[in-house]
Specification:
heterodimer, A: 585 residues, mainly alpha, MetI-like fold, two-stranded antiparallel ribbon, 2 strands, 1% strand, B: alpha+beta, Rossmann fold, 2 domains, 6-stranded mixed beta sheet, 20 strands, 23% helix, binds adenosine-5'-triphosphate, binds magnesium ion
Chain lengths: 585, 362
């Protein structure tokens, strides 16, 4: 008896230890180091860094701008993402697959590629200026780049897919009969939406809001490429401190400031809605009443009723709709809106394709046809090395994250361990801590370990940021897994290992494949960690892309963008195929 | 008492090429309890959602109290629906769930509270008002769904397998409850089930559906004793179906010859026309197949099963061309035990042998 429980304890430890070790060594330690650096100078404890931080309003202004950009981005993403997610959740199977493909394509297309596309699109000789001029709306090119608007467009394009997918995961679980039930009980469409559907979808809205906000606050690609001096965000300050002045202490102090802001946001979120709703774990079916109580809840209810009544008035005012309209069909206005939005977020990257074959540089419209830019890329060792390295690091990250994450997911779902919520929070912390802070901390620690520039260091760093997604995916898969199948196999004489090999893993294969792909794609598009940890001939593809783009905007980059875009499109297609084949079984 | 009549004319619903409901006409009287019965996929839910306005018909009309509602939206139809999965709003308390239809109808707060309490009283769950749906058992949720439906006194109530998820005992209890509420309110009810016993005990009339069309519509007695087709005879209760040929027709009765026998016997028609020489099926219910009497047939006992109050005998007839037969009689304690392989003679009263057209009914 004792021996068995002993062995069980060892097995559990072996399943969870690799993940814990990874996070302690490459998340807790580096971030802790960085934070320590901010209060320890050459002469011991000092608050000098913080004094400098608050001495002038410069840094606080940057913080305010960061918050403003993040907040507006979040608002726009949630408000425009909601109808998209809604439409995807209600349409039939085939249309859903099409809509989802475009969202996923955008989601997986590199942030860099998308930001670059906007530079070209909004440039003086870009599509928009040329079109406006040829329409006679303006006479000379307008300055569309390097202002708040261009940053906002880039940020929304970058984060809208995330918002849509987060809300979608909640909306898909809303029982479709509920709004119908409301209709039979006398609720007009507006009322049924605002009083029934909307409150049930709120956890998704909240989760999308916080995911977008936290990602936005740690973003630097878009403001650096599309913003002017006045749109500098706080992460850019950290980069400057590390790359230009090597001032670790001050970089640490800024990181602390950023971290504190993020933690305050999370604490507020937890107070209001509960963190558990973030992972979408609480299905709306047993949605707990929100923590808002008493007068706030009553006011909210009254507001929803008002919104419902107003919407119904508006619907009544609309030119009388076709009487024989199928009640299940989404309105034309909604469909038009969603397709417009999908076009807006996909078009820039697609417009890159003709430009990459043109001889006229990046000016619109494309002229001639040449493969010159592709040849340049393929003949340049810097680019081919970068591609190879990114593939290698991506595969390594995918494998490592899966190997470490899957057992941990098993442990969290299948066994009763103490403090499960705390463990889960710990495992998810790489998502919460801004990527930039992790990257700078890792750079510092890697420098001590001699891992800077090595593929191993990159794989480890990327695994830290990819592993939470693997654990979450596998936990979801395992929750839906019918453990009776295992018991059946065991009753048929299969020993535990044989059960795993012949029953459990084959059934879980689709989930493992998609978490592998997720980890691969995360690594393949990762720039923040690669920004410091690599360079020159050992740069990854995003890093090489970044170096080129910050130097000059050339058609070569359009060619690379096109390659990346096609590669990701193929990957999603294959992943989707695999998923469907697994689902059909 | 509010209740309305419902008329359906040539209503049809297709999904692509698939006909979920062939053009169907149906009248439901004020205050009637009509059950839609049929195997899975026969179009019951489809018909119900068309009536409720949750799906849109491809053809046909729906009239409530002679008023055409084919194109009215669900919220304007004054129809109550009890959904199969209850469809209680998870983010509202039981009280708010029940008051929802009243709020939608702008009933004053005080009035709404009073009527909500009364509805909870009717389903005998006054103590759960402040709870949330997930804090109730399946049977309780079911009753709340019912309360939410009756609280605004819709003229017609539609119920889609409302008792599907409940265990036998709770189901019997709820059946009585629904019947009581039907009696007290006098509402027109259209009820869906695929439990034939439930249909027989609860309904004024049963509408038996098959493959998207009505197979037979009538009182439970009609369907049980005068099935119009082999499908109906088979679906409702156990039956022995013997092939036979019509020899002659006189009024209600028929002269028939069973299978390959030469001797003639008698049967009654099921209301449709028969012609001499026509091959038919004759239905005899197990409880009407008497062992050791009459003697139209003989056979060997292959199996005996005692299921509480009934004893079932499985018999292989000696006449070629007849399937295995089942005879049932009340279980008696004192009688001599049966022996497998024993030869038995079987008979029935002519009035219990019902002639049915072979193949599809007309
Ligand atoms: N949205 C749909 N798209 C395509 N086919 C459908 C759809 N809804 C129903 N059907 C088909 O229509 C037929 C009738 O379905 P319906 O739900 O009315 O059956 P039912 O009699 O209620 O069955 P059950 O007793 O299983 O509930 C079925 O064959 C079903 O597959
Ligand atoms: Mg059904």
């Amino acid at each position: 008896m004792r021996a068995i429980s002993r062995r069980l304890a060892w097995t559990r430890a072996a399943m969870g230890a690799p993940l814990v070790l990874l996070l302690v060594l490459f998340l807790v330690y580096p971030v802790g180091q960085l934070l320590l650096l901010s209060i320890y100078g050459d002469n011991g404890f000092t608050l000098a860094q913080y004094r400098q931080l608050f001495a002038s309003s410069v840094y606080l202004d940057v913080l305010l701008i960061t918050l403003k950009i993040s907040l507006v981005t979040t608002l726009v993403c949630v408000v425009t993402g909601y109808p998209i997610a809604y439409l995807i959740s209600v349409v039939g199977k085939e249309r859903k697959a099409t809509l989802l493909f475009w969202v996923l394509l955008s989601f997986w297309t590199s942030f860099l590629v998308r930001a670059f596309a906007w530079i070209v699109l909004l440039g003086r000789n870009g599509v928009i200026n040329k079109t406006l001029i040829s329409l006679g709306i303006i006479s000379s090119p307008a300055n569309l780049l390097y202002n708040f608007g261009s940053v906002l467009v880039g940020m929304v394009n970058a984060l809208l897919p995330l918002a849509v997918l987060t809300m979608l995961s909640v909306m898909e679980n809303i029982d479709r009969t509920l709004p119908r039930a409301a209709a039979t009980l006398g609720a007009r469409p507006g009322m049924a939406f605002w009083k029934i559907y909307f409150p049930l979808s709120l956890p998704g809205v909240a989760a999308a809001g916080i995911m977008v906000f936290v990602t936005a606050i740690g973003f630097f690609i878009v403001p650096a490429l599309l913003g002017g001096r006045r749109e500098t965000m706080i992460t850019q300050l950290i980069i400057d401190q590390v790359q230009q002045t090597m001032n670790w202490g001050f970089a640490g102090a800024i990181s602390v400031l950023l971290l504190v802001v993020v933690l305050i946001v999370f604490a507020a979120y937890d107070r209001l809605l509960g963190l558990s709703s973030m992972t979408g774990a609480s299905a709306p079916r047993n949605a707990k009443p929100s923590r808002l109580s008493g007068p706030v809840a009553r006011a909210g209810d009254a507001l929803l009723t008002l919104l419902g009544a107003i919407s119904d008035r508006i619907i009544l005012l609309l030119p009388s709709r076709r009487r024989d309209r199928n009640p299940d069909q989404a309105g034309l206005g909604l469909q038009a809106f969603v397709w417009t939005m999908l076009l807006v977020i996909s078009a820039p990257t697609i417009l890159m394709i003709p430009l990459s074959f043109g001889t006229g540089g990046l000016n619109w419209p494309p002229q001639g046809f040449t493969l010159h830019w592709y040849e340049t890329v393929l003949n340049s060792p810097v680019w081919t090395q970068a591609m190879l390295r990114s593939l290698l690091v991506g595969i390594g990250t995918g494998l490592l994250a899966m190997l470490i994450g899957t057992p941990a997911a098993f442990l969290l779902v299948r066994s009763e361990i103490r403090g499960k919520a705390a463990w889960l929070a710990f495992i998810l912390s790489p998502i919460v801590v801004p990527r930039m802070i992790i990257a700078v901390g890792l750079f510092y620690v890697f420098a001590q370990m001699g891992l800077v520039g090595s593929a191993l260091g990159l794989v480890l760093g990327h695994t830290v940021v990819a592993v939470p997604y693997v654990v979450m995916t596998m936990m979801a898969v395992l929750r839906n897994y019918d453990t009776r199948l295992d018991h059946a196999a065991q009753s048929l004489g299969a020993r535990p290992f044989a059960t795993l090999r012949f029953v459990t893993f084959p059934i879980l294969a689709a989930g493992m494949m998609s978490s592998f792909l997720f980890a691969f794609a995360t690594s393949f598009d990762e720039l923040t960690i690669a920004l410091f940890a690599t360079g020159g001939l050992n740069a990854t593809l995003p890093k090489q892309f970044w170096d080129e783009v910050t130097l000059q905007v050339s058609p070569t980059i359009a060619a690379v963008s096109t390659c990346l875009f096609v590669f990701m499109g193929l990957l999603i297609f294959v992943a989707e195929r695999l998923r469907r084949r697994a689902a059909a079984r | 008492m509010v209740s309305s009549s419902l008329r359906i004319r040539e209503l049809c619903k297709r999904y692509g090429d698939f006909v979920a409901l062939a053009p169907t006409s149906l009248d439901v009287a004020k205050g009637e309890f009509l059950t839609l019965l049929g195997p899975s996929g026969s179009g019951k839910t489809t018909l119900l959602s068309l009536i409720a306005g949750l799906a849109h018909p491809d053809e046909g009309r729906i009239l409530i109290d002679d008023c055409d509602v084919t194109h009215s939206p669900a919220y304007d139809r004054d129809i109550g629906v009890v959904f199969q999965n209850y469809a209680l709003f998870p983010h509202m308390t039981i009280e708010d769930n029940i008051a929802f239809p009243l709020r939608m109808r702008k009933v004053s707060d005080a009035d709404a509270r009073r009527r909500t309490a009364a509805a909870l009283e009717t389903v005998r769950l006054p103590h759960v008002a402040k709870r949330y749906p997930h804090e109730l058992s399946g049977g309780q949720q079911q009753r709340i769904a019912l309360a939410r439906c009756i609280v605004y006194r819709p003229a017609i109530i539609l119920m889609d397998e409302p008792l599907g998820a409940l265990d036998k005992k709770l189901r019997d209890q709820m059946q009585l409850e629904i019947k009581r509420i039907h009696r007290e309110l006098g509402t027109t009810i259209v009820y869906v089930t695929h439990d034939q016993e439930e249909a027989m005990t609860m309904s004024d009339r049963i509408c038996l559906m098959n493959a998207g069309a009505i197979e037979q519509l009538g009182t439970p007695r009609d369907l049980y004793f005068r099935p119009r087709s082999v499908f109906v005879a088979d679906f409702l209760g156990e039956s022995n179906l013997l092939s036979a040929t019509v020899r002659g027709v006189d009024g209600e009765g028929l002269d028939i010859v069973l299978a390959e026998q030469l001797a003639a016997s008698r049967a009654v028609g099921n209301g449709s026309r028969f012609a001499a020489g026509e091959p038919i099926k004759v239905m005899v219910r197990p409880q009407n197949l008497m062992v050791g009497e009459g003697g139209q047939l003989s056979g060997r006992l292959t199996d005996v099963m005692i299921s509480g109050s009934l004893t079932r005998l499985y018999i292989a007839p000696e006449t070629a061309g007849l399937p295995q037969l089942v005879a049932a009689h009340p279980t008696r304690s004192g009688s001599a035990p049966y022996e497998i392989g024993q030869r038995l003679s079987l008979g029935w009263h002519a009035a219990d042998a019902v002639a049915i057209h072979d193949g599809k009914g007309i």
